[in-house]
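Inverse folding, one chain.
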């Protein structure tokens, strides 16, 4: 997984920084999963947005 994250980060840094938005519905586990996904995206170089 780390190799994939490094490759995506290098690609993202060579272009305008993309943003990620995750809207979560449902239980606490869904919220935890969403935070994990956002964390992975941020490690890859994505910025977080609220909309």
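Residues assigned per position:
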């Amino acid at each position: 997984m780390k190799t994939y994250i490094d490759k995506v980060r290098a690609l993202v840094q060579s272009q305008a920084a993309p943003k990620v938005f995750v809207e979560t519905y449902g239980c606490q586990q869904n919220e935890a999963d969403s935070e994990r996904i956002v964390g992975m995206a941020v490690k890859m170089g994505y910025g977080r947005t609220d909309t």
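The two ends are 28 Å apart (CA to CA). DSSP finds two helices and two strands in the chain.
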